[in-house]
Amino acid sequence: MELIDFDGLFDEKLAEYMQQNRGKYTEKQWEALIPKLYKQFGDTFIPKAGATPKGYYAAMTDEALVEALVRHIEEGVPVSDFLCRELEGRDCPDALLTLLQETDSELITLAVNLIGSHPKAFGPYFRLLALPDCDEDVAETICEQLKMSADRVKALALEDYKKDIRSEMMLEILSRCKERDDAVFEVLLNAFRTSGEELPMRASYLAAYGDVRALPTLLEAIDRDDINFLEYQELKYAIEALGGEYTRPRDFTNDAYFQEIASQQAGALDILASNNKKSDA
Description:
mainly alpha
């Protein structure tokens, strides 16, 4: 099967169109028009393909589509949106799942984005995360998908957390659960109590989970004199996100994080003032 660079063909047609309509549109108008032209291109008959871009891929089997995707990556030919949309519309074919067993991180990441949060992929996703050599970008992409299905994967996430498999990532997934579950709450709360340097992040997990039973623990933590400004800010946000309030005045003048943020804000104000002076001139 010959690979067809539909995006390259579109760029050629776009260049001709822009040349023919030079001066007709502003830059912003072009930005709005180009996606519309690309969509129209999907229904345009391409002699080289013997079909429209959309029709070309629609006629392929699941296996042929996945093979085309792999070859596009391996041969450095841009993967068109028409190929991706056709694969996405096929409800996670088994041929696409096989790509999760590949070694090329770019290909795996693309496969995860195409599969999305389909239940058929939950098991393979967690098996990938358990591999010591799992690429970090791949892991983050998988985590984003699993967070969108947190309630459906919480049992797997709890199991991996107990096994100390990507603990921080499992906490992040569990924090997105919408159904109240004492097992999930206890894991998030205990993780916060033993957080150490991870305190700001783990406070954010409690805020995301949204269980008001965490308020007493958060209020106790924010009232400690040994917390830094960064921790204070995240704790205060978590408390307010759960409907609570913390009003005791605190002085972080000598805190390194506070000084750094204050310095950045002062620099931004200086730049703004300088720009205003130039405008007035």
